[in-house]
Structure formats: structure tokens, C-alpha cells
Amino acid sequence: MNNTFSISRFGRYFKYDFKRWVSTYGPTLLLMSAAPLILYTLTVVYSLLFAGEWGTPGETTRILIACMVTFVMILTYPSSVYGYVTEKRAGSTFVLMPASVFEKFLSMILNTVVVVPLAFGLVYLSIDGIICLLDGTCGGSLFSCAARGLESLVTFAFTSDAPVHVSLFSMYMSSVSTALFFLLGAIFFKKHKILYPILIIVCFQMALSMVFGLVVSLGLINVENLTLFAQNLADRFILNPDFLNWAIPAYNVLATLWDIIVFAALATAVYFRLKTLKH
Amino acid sequence: MIRIENLGFSYGKVPVLKNITMGLEPGKIYGLLGENGVGKTTLLTLLCGLKKALEGSISVDGIDPYSRNPELLAKQFYLADEMLALPIKAADYAKMTGEFWPNYSHDMFLEIMELFENDPQKKLIAMSAGQLKKAYISLALALGCRYIYLDEPTNGLDIPSKAQFRSALMKYTSEDSTIVISTHQVRDLENIIDPIIILDRQEVLLNADVETISEKLYFDYGTELHPESLYSEQLPGGFIQVYPNADGRESKVNIEALFNAVHKNKELIKGLFAIK
């Protein structure tokens, strides 16, 4: 028996893990994904009650709500789906389930970075799409709006000579790294599984600002010279198509590599946390 | 076969188990007794791999349980004192969990649930504490494990369920299983646990089978009080007293009296029984 990875055991564990989170977190996920329907119903009811007319949420409102719900979702779902591993009763069951740590880790990563966001996105956009299909007064669906947004992001050009191609893969890796960071918080902290990761980010940013402020105030960096250097760089290179033609793709590669490194570091931390869980 | 060698464990600077050495053999139902806080649950969690031994070692079939080796995990089950109430039907939960244990029998699970008069179609979250415990006991027995660790299994069970638990344990575990039951409810399990392990602060006071105990100690249920007894307690209509069995008389072991006698005469008992 391979005690590190067996495809059949992993399949069995993934199915078990999926059923478990669907039974515990599924209703919440469904409720969050049903935000377009809730928004639509509330808007229609309030419009009929107070304005006496058929009013529906416009595209801007729906985009705003979608962004808010997605933000809340990214913050909360890792702890809702996997926060239980630090809890004595449920965590013991997790640790003692006959599958290897690697299989449990892989299932956790797949659910966190693919299955849950995909399920949320699909249900959310489908409900919104159906509403827009049934009621033309809502405007365009969020799906077409998101597709347009992505297209304009990908084809956005700083200059006509050197169009910038934003890597969708890099964008995806950045988003899932955020989810992984909150997953790490969820399986690391026993309490305040969302608050502590946020506090860590805030403290990190504050520490960076303080270090930078200290460096500037001690005169280790001359701000005027730095500004002048940046201006010269911009004058000589930023508007130079020859430079941009190689610099931007190179930057994209570096950014993607960085995202992969961050993702790998967070995933490794998740793995070792799972390996050393004790109850 | 479980082998524990010089096991030590502490919570921070508070030592719980120290220099514990013993072997647990197949085909036996061990009763793990001890006062509150002596480390019974800690020992069970160390045996199943939920905690890491800080000193010494534990090996179950030659494998360190903390390695959480799937092969070993599939041979064992730990039933904690408090269980998880999920919003899933008991039968569905048993089925989806049981898939990981090669010897799991769903029919056996349903049979034990029926014995306990417990509804397998009821959601775990909707069950009372006793029903939940019975559902998990049914699962623990139906998994067909070689190593079963039960922490206070009779807590929360009503009187008929305690008898049903005893008969289920005898009927549905295989002959080569090693079962370790930590309990304070010794009367509930008096007739099934053998050998008996009594833990004290950081050490094992007694690890002996009932036959050896009755060879070395005599349990007197008479009406006359003997001041030289290791332990005596007044009962309605007489006394229960424990003496060293100098002349090889036969008597029925009373675990509660044994426990108290051991606690009142630690050094004498340790001298009387060689720790395995």
C-alpha cells in the first residue's frame, strides 16, 4: 500500500471531503450565490411599495453587490469550509481519517482554489443571467459584463506601440493566493480565524510603512533624488516602445513567477500545518 | 500488538505521563482507569496518533501512530468522549466514512443501530447525546478495526443501552481486536474489561488481568470488618474488603474496590504486581 498517495484513496477522500463541505457549508454558499435573486426581489418589492412602479437593480448596483459578496466570500469561505480542523471533535475526525496528509492537503487545496470559487461563480452568474433573461429591465447580465471587463483588461494598452497583456493566470493566482492566505489562517488559529489574518496584513503594512518612514526620516534615502531618478527613468524608458516591448512581457513573467512562489509558499505552509495538527 | 516504551508527555511544563512502559495484546478489552486528570484521554490520543509522544515511543504493529500512516489509520478507530453532530443522516455518515475502512460492514452498522433502538435515518445533529453516542459506537464496531479506543463510551447512555453496549462489544468485535476503554463508570463494564490498567499521576499503578488480580488480592463480601484490610467499604448488609490473597482463595473482583485499594496502597500494589 502506498502510504503517501494512492489515486483511488484520494478519489474516495475527495468525494468524502466534497460531501462534507456541501452538507455543512453548502446552504451558506447557496445563500451567498443567491444574492442576485435576493437583491432583485428586495428592489422590486421596495419599488412597488414605495414608488408604486416596477423597479429592478441596475447593472452598476449589481456589479457593486457582486464585488461585495465576492469579497465577503473570499474572506469567509476558507474558515467556514476548513476552519473545523482546529476544533477538537471535528479536527480529530479529520486527522484520523484513513488517508495520507498529502491526499487531505490536495483535496483541501482543490476545493479551496477551484471547486468552491467555481461553484460560487457559476451559481451566482447563472442566477443573475436567468433574472436578466426573464426581466429585460435589469440590463446586461453580469456574465457578459465580466467577460467584457476581462477582455478590456487583457487588451488594455498603455501606448498604441506596446500593448500590455495582463496575464489571466497571474490574476487567478493572485486571487487564490488570497484565499490560501485565509485558509492558512483558518487552519492555524483556533479562534478569530478571519480577524487574525486581516490583522496580520494590517500589521505587516504598518510595519513596512514604519520602516520606510524611518529610512526616509533618517536620511538613508533622499526622496528628491529618488523622484528625480524615477522621472529620468520614465522619460528615457517608459514611453520608449523598444523598451516596453521586452520589459512588459518580462515583467508579466516575473509577476507570474512571483505569484507562483507566493502560492507555493502558502500551500507548503498549509501542508506542514496539516502534518503537525494535534488534538 | 501495541508497545509503549518509556512514554512521556506533558502539557507545557505540566507533566502528565512519565516513563510509561507496557504492552497491549490482541484479543483483549483493556479497562483504563484513573482519577480525573491523570492522563487517560491523553494516553488514548497518543495511542491513536492525535498527539505526539514527547519522550519514549509508541508502536502499533511496528508503526508510530503519530506518522498517521493510512494503513494504520484504517486499522484503528478512536471514539472521543464528545462526538461531532453533523447535519447528515447517521446511515449516510456511516456509509461515507466507512468507505475508508476495508472491513466496514454497513449491514452490521444497521444491525447495531437496531440493537440500540436508534434510527439510522435520523440526522446526527438532531440526535440526543445518548443517541449520538450510540450511533458512533455502532460505527466504531461496524468498521471492523483491530484497534478500538473508546473514551467514556457509556457516558450519556441510558440503563438498557449500557447492557446493549456490552453485548454489542462482545458480539461485534473480532477475536484479535485490541480494545482500550477509558472509563469512570466501572460498574457498567465490570464484566467485560480484562485486563485492568490503573493510571496514577504520571505512572501506571496496575496493569494486570482479572485472573492475576484475583490470585493476588482477595475480595471479601462478608459482614465482619477486618481492620488489616487494604480497603474496606460498608455496603447494605455487609462490607466489601480487599486483602492480599495469601492463601489462594477465590473471589470475584470488584473493580471499584480494587481501584480504591490500589489508590490507598500504591507502593504495596506496585510491589505486588509486576508492571508488564
The poorly predicted ranges of chain A are none
Taken from the alpha-carbon principal axes, the silhouette of chain B is globular
Order of helices and strands of chain A: HHHHHHHHHH
> What class do helices, strands and sheet pairing of chain A give?
mainly alpha
Cα-to-Cα separation, first versus last residue of chain B: 14 Å
Low-confidence stretches of chain B: none
Would you tell me the overall average pLDDT of chain A? 90
Distance between the termini of chain A: 27 Å
Summarize the largest interface: chains and residue counts: A-B, 27 and 27 residues
What's the count of strands of chain B? Answer: 12
The helicity of chain B comes to 25-40%
The residue fraction in helices of chain A comes out at over 70%
* Tally of DSSP β-strands of chain A: 0
Give the SSE string of chain B: EEEHEHEHHHEHEHEEHEEEHH
Attribute tags:
A: 279 residues; mainly alpha; 79% helix; B: 276 residues; alpha/beta; three-stranded antiparallel β-sheet; 32% helix; globular
